[in-house]
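Chains adopt folds. We examine one example:
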Amino acid sequence: MKKIKRSVLILVLLGSLFFVFAPEVVPENYQFQELLNLATQNDVIIIFNSGGWGNTPLEKAEDFTPIIEGIKKTLESFGYNSLIIPYIRTENTLSGKIAGVRDFLSSHNSSSKILAEKVEFLIENLPDKKIILTGLSSGGALVEETMEKIEEKASVYAIEAGVPFWTSPSHYPYNSEKILQLSERSEGRRRANILRLNNNGKDSLSAGEIRTLLFTLIKAPIKWISSKISGQNLTFSQAIRVPGHEYSWSSPEVGSQIVTFLENKLR
């Protein structure tokens, strides 16, 4: 028994040391340089951040792709051509996910610095373009932290959906209903560039409804196992369905607010 306890303790210590001292793994995101010439042919650059680990391709992000497509079509109705650039937040490896967890626990401090550098690179090389940072859930939290680090924000806008409640509340942006009420102070102008969606307060994750979230986490393993038995084969992330954390372009709490925001900012 003592040998088992000692072995478990050693494994825990080794795991902790690996977590703390594992090398930083940063996705390459070469597309920013490679697509620079293509971006010159467009009026607006949309940078896409998925939720979860932040490495879901745009074509597979069924929860957020319809919103990105809605944004693109809205811009087209204004006469703008737009380019979508996916931003990969976490490399899909064990060491990459460990680095991703560390970054998550530090409020995306590392990845937001990198993304801010990419955005400033685009601003410097394409000064006449508009840039829209978009993100869902943890991707939205990354966008919010990135906006804090960008020095020149005049041509940069952010659309965030379902940002978790533990994100710093010091710079809560206004929703579209309050955009026209902003003062002319610089702080007001900075906040006016950000649209934060929370399904009008119905998102349990954004609202910080701890009891609901705990109940959802408790149910998730049961739902995941049941799906395996029934042949549905849900992923564990799909089994975690937080009430109010689904965002649909057709919803008045989502699509119409984004359209209003874009009309006020870009039309």
Remarks:
- Residues 55 and 92 are 7 Å apart (CA to CA).
- Residues 2-26, 169-190 have pLDDT under 50 and may be disordered.
